């Protein structure tokens, strides 16, 4: 993009403004320039062509205007944008007119804002403020904020199931909770389940008496259908699992296991038979679903059991630059570090980033689909047993 020829610039002008191109006759205001630079950096980058009016006519800039514009850009970048960005400029002589093109890469430290705290993003030929949900996700992708550390100001420490928490503490730390130095508030804070007097998202979803009081959207919906069509009106069983994430995990494991077949596999008539798909496959896939889903997306995990397949649909695409090829080769990124740290002690979890590889080893007929457009990650497990 930084080596565009004059004919490419003219073609951009001819096509008009779009997600990657903006036309400006002049720029004289630092605040407005800051918003434009932030908008491109929060999107996919692009160029601002200065010296062209809205109709695409080349107006040109004088040498003095070019000097002032470069100084304006320098001042804006240094004082009006956080974190810093590094636009490049180039002067073009086109049809006896001097134009300045500002080149902007997609930012690597999103989200960017003006010094007044304005977060905007380029959408089509316009810019608009970033929604709170998208802003939270951008912070998450940048590693500046995680959904599971969010403090719920509507909660109090009295919302926690202290008996369940005490049992967890004793089991995993081998210390009777009542013998620990320090208050319960401090212990909850130390393991990042609370920020007294409130609970964090992690504390609510792992130990609250009623997590859905605060987050009704974070449940798991299961459907076992007749046939192979998820749009059918006929189903064998429907199950909505609410409560803590551990309870949901246990409920959905039971839901899946009672709705898949057991096959003889050469065993005697008096044997119970083996699961058509090994249990460990569901342990690994469900663990990934609860620990690594995007909790900034207000949607349930969905599990569909059909005659020829099982679909587990997780809200949120793979984080950052992670790909399906990456995860099937053992590469992982922790999206929810507090949940991973605590919940991993409460369910079958080995914590070495090899869950997908382990599932494939035991049952290779699994497809992974990273749907960026729909913001979801889908696991399709084939049912091959007759």
Unreliable spans: none
Q: What is the architecture of the largest domain at the second tier of CATH?
A: 2-Layer Sandwich
The end-to-end distance, rounded to whole angstroms, is 55 Å
User: What strand order characterises the main sheet?
Assistant: 13-12-16-17-19-18
Strand count, sense and barrel status of the largest sheet are: 6 strands, mixed
Q: How would you explain this protein's 3D organization?
A:
The chain has helices at 6-15, 30-42, 63-79, 132-141, 162-173, 184-190, 201-207, 245-258, 279-292, 324-327, 337-343, 355-362, and strands at 21-24, 46-50, 81-82, 88-94, 97-104, 113-114, 120-123, 126-129, 151-152, 194-195, 198-200, 220-225, 235-241, 262-263, 274-275, 301-305, 309-315, 366-371, 376-382. It is an alpha+beta fold. The chain folds into 3 domains: 6-130, Methyltransferase, Cobalt-precorrin-4 Transmethylase, Domain 2, CATH 3.30.950; 147-210, no CATH class; 220-382, 2-Layer Sandwich (Heat Shock Protein 90), CATH 3.30.565. Helix 2 (30-42) crosses helix 3 (63-79) and helix 8 (245-258) packs antiparallel against helix 9 (279-292). The longest helix has 17 residues, at 63-79. It starts with 5 loop residues before the first helix and ends with a strand. The mean pLDDT is 90.
């Amino acid at each position: 993009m930084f080596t565009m020829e004059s004919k490419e610039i003219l073609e951009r002008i001819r096509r008009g403004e779009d997600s990657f191109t903006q036309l400006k006759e002049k720029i004289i205001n630092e605040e407005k320039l800051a918003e434009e630079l932030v908008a491109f950096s929060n999107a996919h980058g692009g160029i601002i062509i200065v010296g062209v009016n809205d109709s695409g006519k080349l107006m040109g800039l004088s040498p003095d205007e070019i000097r002032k514009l470069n100084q304006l850009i320098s001042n804006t970048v240094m004082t009006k944008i956080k974190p810093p960005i590094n636009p490049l400029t180039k002067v073009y002589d086109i049809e006896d007119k001097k134009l300045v093109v500002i080149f902007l890469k997609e930012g690597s430290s999103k989200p960017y804002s003006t010094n007044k705290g304005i977060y905007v993003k380029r959408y089509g030929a316009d810019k608009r403020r970033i929604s709170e949900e998208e802003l939270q996700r951008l912070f998450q992708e940048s590693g500046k904020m995680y959904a599971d550390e969010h403090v719920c100001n509507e909660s109090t420490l009295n919302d926690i199931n202290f008996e369940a928490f005490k049992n967890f503490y004793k089991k995993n730390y081998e210390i009777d909770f009542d013998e620990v130095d320090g208050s319960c508030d401090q212990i909850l804070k130390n393991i990042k389940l609370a920020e007294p007097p409130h609970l964090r998202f992690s504390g609510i979803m792992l130990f609250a008496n009623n997590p859905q009081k605060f987050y009704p959207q974070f449940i798991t919906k299961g459907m076992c259908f007749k046939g192979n069509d998820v749009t059918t009106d006929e189903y064998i069983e429907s199950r909505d699992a609410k409560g803590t994430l551990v309870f949901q995990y246990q409920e959905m494991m039971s839901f899946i296991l009672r709705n898949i077949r057991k096959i003889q596999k050469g065993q005697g008539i008096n044997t119970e038979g083996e699961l058509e798909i090994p249990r460990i496959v569901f342990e690994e896939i469900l663990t990934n679903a609860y620990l690594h889903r995007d909790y900034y997306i207000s949607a349930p995990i969905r599990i569909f059991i059909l005659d020829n397949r099982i679909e587990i649909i997780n809200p949120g695409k793979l984080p950052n630059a992670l790909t399906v090829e990456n995860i099937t080769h053992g590469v992982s990124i922790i999206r929810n570090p507090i949940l991973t740290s605590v919940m991993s002690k409460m369910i079958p979890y080995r914590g070495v980033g090899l869950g997908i590889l382990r599932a494939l080893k035991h049952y290779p007929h699994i497809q992974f689909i990273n749907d960026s457009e729909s913001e979801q990650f889908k696991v399709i497990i084939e049912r091959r047993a007759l």
